[in-house]
Amino acid sequence: MNLEKRYSIGEISHITGVSKDTLRYYDRIGVFKPEYVDPDNQYRYYTYSQFWYLDIITCCRRLQIPLERVKSVLDLHDNEKIVEMLKEQRQEAQRQSEYYARVVDDIDWYTEQNKRLREMGKDKEIRVKHLQQRRVIYGRNKEDEAAYHIKLQEACRDEISHMESIKRNYGYVLNGSKIRENVFHQMGEYIDIRVDEYRFASKENILTIPEGEYACFTTEVRGNFADFGILVNWLDKHGYSPDFVIADEAGLQLFAYNQYFYPCEIKVLLSS
Q1: How far apart are CA 159 and CA 179, in angstroms?
Q2: What is the pTM of this model?
Q3: What pLDDT digit, counting tens, does each position of 108-133 carry?
Q4: DSSP string, 81-107
Q5: Judging by DSSP bridges, how do beta strands 212-222 and 261-269 pair with one another?
């Protein structure tokens, strides 16, 4: 075999399966440069010994090692040091594996949210449920009532920025005096991300939803209106007043659904 034979970029690509564009890119960034450049026509040529380097680069890329670190691997002639570098890459691969596992879990969760959305709204009965206390981040409407979501975004900004998951649900504190008029009047909006402790949200933006017995039913909200008739009749019949009313959205939806109708579970704390 003629070890001095020179190979064009097209031949290298054909033999190894590495595209010519990739080889040109490796040349441009200095990872894999041709050993010989013809001074007359500037054609680039590789030699037989360089095939080993390309094998090393290909292995490194399969391990997702960044190209800037591939240069370090090519410069090393100590396998122990290469093993240490690969252990660092293993840690990064583990981190990415955990990240994509969370992505899969979030997508499964969102799929279940959609299933819940399809099923809700079919049962119009009032159900009394004992609900545990929970703490949510709340955006109060003190100025422009139409901007309740902006208030919430301001309140939960720092907490959300540190979240790795999309798991969350939204809800509203309603003006109970308006439900007899079938008016869905949001006094504020909250987000429930079900964490043990809020680390970044301001204490003044934390709302505690009390434990207790709640009259619950599902209705569809259209703009600022919803049919509360069944609920109002039930409350009157049993002698309760709607002093604390919340509305939990049935599930997370990744589109601007507030322009359409959407199901909410209305919950009234039962107090005489």
Answers
A1: 32
A2: 0.76
A3: 999 998 888 887 766 678 999 999 99
A4: HHHHHHHHHHHHHHHHHHHHHHHHHHH
A5: antiparallel
Q: Say if residues 26 and 68 touch (Cβ distance below 8 Å).
A: no
- Record the tokens describing residue 90, joined without a space: 């293993």
* b/e 51-86 (16+ beta carbons within 10 angstroms → b): eebbeebeebeeeebeeeebbebeeeeeeeeeeebe
Q: Look up tokens 């939803």; give the residue.
A: 209
**Going by DSSP bridges, is the β-strand pair 36-37/44-47 parallel, antiparallel, or unpaired?**
antiparallel
Closest by Cα among 185, 180, 169 to 221: 185
Compute the distance between CA of residue 71 and CA of residue 55 in angstroms, rounded to an integer. 13
Q: What is the pLDDT of residue 123?
A: 66
Q: Both tokens of residue 246?
A: 């919340």
Q: Are the C-beta atoms of residues 221 and 264 closer than 8 Å to each other?
A: yes
